[in-house]
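Field reference: sequence -> structure
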Amino acid sequence: MLPMSDRLQLLDKYIVPEGNTQGETYFGIAHSSKDRLGRLRVTTEAYRGREYLADIPEVGLNRPLSDLINGSLEEFTIMLSELSGGYDEIFMEEGIVVYDLNGDRTDGIYIDPWEFQSIPIVAKNSKGEVVGSSRLIMANDPLPLPTLKTDRLVSPEFKEAVKQVPLEMSQLAKSDQVNELVKFGLFRIAIHLSREMGANEWLATTDSFVMRLLNGRLKFAIKEIGQTQNYLGSDSTPGWIKVDVTLNSVAENGDRNLADYLGGKFGVPGFETFISL
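Structure field:
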């Protein structure tokens, strides 16, 4: 993995531009507070639509949400510990929904402790609005990856093999105004970023329906490393993604155009309006 100084340079390289042409979707890293909040709102709306957040508490805070995401994990947990209700402990276990007491409660965002050690990835439309979300979580910076944090997700026979995996992909989501193809653009950026960081493998605990789609019709060849179980409100399956294995499988057994696009080629039929590195 690249040292932190090189990771920060990587962030600058992949800043997603403001779109200004009709019909194009831009992909890259969310660098500004506006884009980072936009990413979290897309994720929150998608999670609410699937009822993943039904049991997650909502907490009103007397400060702008942009201040929260620009701080540190330690600062955020200290602030929560000053409130009654044990919100700091809930946050560390499963995340919480926070909203600005001086704003609209319905504009709250779901946030978890891994937000502070993630590279946030977004898709933006031609108006500059965030319409897609994902992130790559970096291991042990300071927390272990979410899939490895609890003993119950990964089966014993895989624990030794995956304990050094450096990244986890999560929060792959889109807004209702764009189609499912946007998720492939987010996946492509994650592949580019991980390669530049010297990593070829990720973990991902994914909704089981999505896992069946990825491994079934799309031929992503994700290794399932645990049993399906309820995780953050969804029946989910932990997976181990080896990027090269996935790209080869999609190319040989699935859609060659999709494999070319995910692998970094430009002008691929079906993806002409997707602007990404």
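Note: Residues 2 and 197 are 5 Å apart (CA to CA).
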